[in-house]
């Protein structure tokens, strides 16, 4: 019987044991909220990224790519408003010195402080304090500080003649990837000559000094974003927004995410320049509920206008058909790769009883996302003719499919290991294979086995992946 039972500890432990995700710098005691991806994690993450790039760039003729640098002119963040207001409200426990996000503390009491000022936040916190309700979630103490602003910008001194970080020499690690897209909007327009509406997509690292980051790879201080800015005629924002909402929703379904596991969250309080903002939320069993994985925002002409103003470069668009010049409006889609990874892992993680008293842990990834598509086993390790035949099959498949050759332990153990890394097909070469030129293919989910001719294997795998 299949059972979904994946509290976070199990995902964290499997991720480390099986080479998906490791705590960063672990031999030095680790570094808070930073993670490294191991062999299988890297493959899975790349497959999710590639599925996004395929849908957003390869299969469209109106979106082009960009791979921008992490370091950008500090003026970028002045223009975008990040330097003035990219911060979260922080509360400290005076007793145990734990730090919390005040908006998250309020959320636990049903108070929405999205985009609210410190005055509102502190007034709400004080109400809870007066009612004796507000306690440190860590130690239970009621001695908490007032909320204060904590900037999420990560600073560096790249290229600076001194170590000291002063206002003049500080440079920031980008807090989101879309900055490059706005700054390279004109070069993209001049070099690839797209016509409105068109988009620029990019995958890359972003950095945020998150106050609290205790949810494994859901919230990290270094993470990857998948962002696309779609530049549109001002009068066509609404229909483009609706199209992108639908397109992004459908992408999750195409990835194998169950429709009942995702939902829309509508932002009621919008930034002054925005006309619409929705998030796609996934129901993380490991985090106890629905949480944001992607934001889809109609951002008006704010970004291009601000960068025009601050840089002195004209970022307007001339429309040949109507002979008009204007600043395009933007519809943005922005997802976090680590969050998508956790979503895919969360949905795939399954513990099930295979026989009376025997259970297995299996990652039921959609085959196209699975890190390893096929594992190839010789039935016995000490029979050279089986090993040679298995190697031959492995060599014939590996240029097209990510495969693994495994002759460790007995077949049962090999199946369990491949189940735990989510390999959809295990191919065993036995004595019959030597005569009949076929293999046993074992399906990960049904555990059923079929004999398939070696000459047919590529087609068999292609059809199923
Ligand atoms: P949150 O409210 O969870 O802090 P956000 O609304 O600030 O997220 P955006 O700035 O809209 O997030 O970023 C777009 C996407 O980038 C998010 O939907 C999320 O998937 C991802 N993301 C943002 N911050 C982080 C982080 N610290 N760690 C991992 N992914 C992140």
Q: Do you know the CATH topology of the largest domain?
A: BirA Bifunctional Protein, domain 2
CATH top level assignment of the largest domain: Alpha Beta
Beta strand count: 24
CATH H-level superfamily of the largest domain: Bira Bifunctional Protein, Domain 2
In terms of DSSP E residues, the strand content is: 25-35%
**Which residues form runs of ≥5 with pLDDT under 50?**
none
| Structural class by sheet pairing and helices | alpha+beta
Topology:
Elements: E1 2-3, H1 8-17, E2 21-23, E3 35-37, H2 39-58, E4 63-65, H3 75-79, H4 82-85, E5 87-92, E6 99-101, H5 102-107, H6 118-130, E7 148-151, E8 154-156, E9 171-173, H7 178-183, H8 185-192, E10 198-207, E11 222-232, H9 237-254, E12 262-266, E13 276-284, E14 289-300, H10 302-311, E15 317-319, E16 324-326, E17 329-336, H11 337-348, E18 349-355, E19 358-363, E20 374-378, H12 384-397, E21 403-405, H13 411-421, E22 425-429, H14 431-436, E23 438-443, E24 449-453, H15 457-464
Parallel strand pairs: 4-10, 20-21, 20-22
Antiparallel strand pairs: 1-18, 2-3, 5-6, 5-7, 8-9, 10-11, 11-17, 12-13, 13-14, 14-17, 15-16, 18-19, 22-23, 23-24
Helix pairs in contact: 2-11
The structure holds adenosine-5'-triphosphate.
């Amino acid at each position: 019987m299949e059972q979904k039972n994946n509290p976070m500890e199990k995902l964290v432990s499997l991720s480390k044991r099986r080479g998906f995700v490791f705590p960063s710098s672990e031999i030095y005691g680790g570094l808070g909220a930073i993670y490294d991806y191991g062999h299988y994690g890297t493959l899975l993450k790349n497959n999710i990224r590639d599925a996004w790039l395929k849908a957003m760039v390869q299969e469209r003729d109106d979106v082009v790519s960009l791979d921008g640098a992490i370091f950008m002119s500090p003026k970028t963040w002045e223009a975008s408003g990040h330097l003035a207001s990219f911060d979260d409200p922080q509360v400290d426990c005076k007793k145990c010195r734990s730090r919390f996000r005040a908006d998250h503390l309020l959320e636990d009491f049903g108070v929405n402080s999205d985009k609210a000022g410190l005055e509102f936040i502190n007034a709400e916190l004080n109400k809870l304090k007066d009612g004796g309700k507000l306690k440190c979630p860590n130690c239970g103490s009621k001695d908490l500080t007032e909320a204060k602003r904590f900037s999420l910008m990560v600073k560096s001194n790249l290229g600076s003649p001194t170590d000291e970080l002063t206002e003049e020499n500080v440079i920031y690690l980008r807090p989101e990837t879309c900055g490059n897209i706005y700054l390279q909007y004109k070069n993209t327009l001049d070099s690839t000559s797209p016509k409105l509406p068109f988009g620029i997509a990019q995958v890359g690292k972003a950095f945020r000094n998150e106050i609290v980051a205790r949810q494994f790879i859901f919230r990290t201080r270094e993470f990857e974003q998948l962002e696309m800015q779609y530049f549109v005629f001002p009068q066509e924002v609404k229909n483009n927004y609706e199209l992108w909402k639908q397109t992004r929703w459908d992408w999750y379904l195409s990835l194998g995410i169950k429709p009942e596991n995702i939902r829309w969250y509508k932002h009621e309080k919008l930034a002054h320049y925005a006309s619409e903002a929705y998030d796609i939320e996934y129901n993380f069993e490991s985090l106890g509920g629905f949480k944001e994985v992607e934001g889809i925002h109609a951002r008006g002409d704010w970004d291009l206008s601000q960068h025009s103003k601050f840089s002195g470069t004209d970022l307007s668009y001339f429309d040949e058909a109507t002979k008009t010049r204007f600043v395009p409006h933007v519809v943005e889609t922005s997802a976090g790769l680590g969050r998508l990874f956790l979503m895919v892992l969360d949905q795939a993680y399954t513990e099930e009883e295979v026989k009376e008293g025997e259970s297995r842990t299996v990652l039921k990834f959609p085959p196209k996302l699975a890190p390893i598509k096929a594992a190839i086993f010789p039935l016995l390790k000490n029979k050279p003719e089986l090993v040679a035949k298995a190697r031959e099959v492995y060599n014939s498949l590996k240029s097209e499919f990510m495969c693994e050759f495994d002759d460790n332990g007995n077949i049962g153990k090999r199946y369990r290991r491949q189940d735990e890394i989510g390999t959809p097909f295990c191919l065993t070469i036995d004595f019959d294979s030597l005569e009949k030129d076929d293999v046993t293919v074992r399906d990960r989910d049904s555990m059923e086995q079929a004999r398939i001719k070696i000459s047919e294997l590529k087609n068999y795998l292609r059809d199923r992946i």
